[in-house]
Amino acid sequence: MPLHQIQLTRGPAASPGAGERTTIEPLLLTTARVLTFDGPRPLTNATGFFFRRNARVFLITSRHVVIDESSGHRPDRVEVTVHTDEDNLAQATVVSLPLYRDGRAVWRQARDRGGEVDVAAILLDAAVLPVSRAWRSFGPEHLHATQAGAEVGDLVQIVGYPLGFQDTLHQLPVVRLAAIASSYGLRFQGQGYFLTDARTHRGTSGAPVVMRDATVDAALPWRLLGVHSSRMDMNTRDQLADESLGLNCAWYADILLTLTQDVATAPSL
């Protein structure tokens, strides 16, 4: 399947009314809605975000978005929406990215001592992206050191597209408020993730989990703590008598340093 773009035209953005913001929070431009397909057949909604490393940009999402052996989910391409005009966020382009080339997966994944890490990275080729791009990207400088600075109970934000929901005019995500629910820096049950306490839905997989920090980067003042994966539940829960735990798994974001290292292919953006 060749790479291609589909131009979205939503019409000019309405003139701001009294008290309406004329600028956009840069955090909202770090993410993109991800749609998965098997050929022309749509499969699932998810979330991804942009991560820059050595002048190259990757789309980051959950591994189970691009392949999930347990459920037989095997899309062959994804579509992501890229804003093209920061002054008119109604203008965007949908970019189609194949997940396989010559029969081989194009995404990067990793394992650690706990097993498969539910994070995937796809290197974006400048040749298939619109010349004009209005995105923001995290970088190594935004990664949060696990040794200090985040504690259980601290508030964080999860930026994504629950059930595919978004600002349909401006193609922007929504933000859910969450709290760190397990000791940050400790691998919960020996896995490479920590827990958050938040109301989440399908479609949020792959969302960045962030904490505001004005000292990290004036242009994007957020720490990237993790990558939201899935809700945590108990097999023994009585489905009728007990509510779900309301807890979620977020993989530590430092795995991105492993997934994005030593990439020598594709031109810089």
Question: What does this protein look like?
Answer:
This protein is mainly beta and 269 residues long. It has a single domain (4-259), classed as Thrombin, subunit H, CATH 2.40.10.120. Helices cover 3% and strands 37% of the residues. The chain is built from two helices and 17 strands. The longest helix has 5 residues, at 255-259. The radius of gyration is 18 Å and the shape is globular. The model is unreliable at 1-19 (pLDDT under 50).
Shape: globular
Tally of distinct domains = 1
| Poorly predicted ranges | 1-19
Helix-strand topology string: EEEEHEEEEEEEEEEEEEH
- The termini sit apart by 22 Å
Structural class: mainly beta
Helical content band: under 10%
Question: Mean pLDDT across all residues, rounded?
Answer: 84
Regarding CATH, which class?
A: Mainly Beta
The rounded Rg comes to 18 Å
Query: Main sheet?
Result: 7 strands, antiparallel
**Spatial order of the strands in the main sheet?**
1-6-5-2-3-4-11
Q: According to CATH, what is the topology?
A: Thrombin, subunit H
What topology emerges from the helices and strands here?
Elements: E1 4-9, E2 31-38, E3 41-53, E4 56-61, H1 63-66, E5 77-83, E6 91-98, E7 100-101, E8 104-105, E9 111-112, E10 115-116, E11 120-123, E12 155-160, E13 174-180, E14 193-197, E15 208-212, E16 222-232, E17 247-252, H2 255-259
Antiparallel strand pairs: 1-6, 2-3, 2-5, 3-4, 4-11, 5-6, 7-8, 9-10, 12-13, 12-15, 13-14, 14-17, 15-16, 16-17
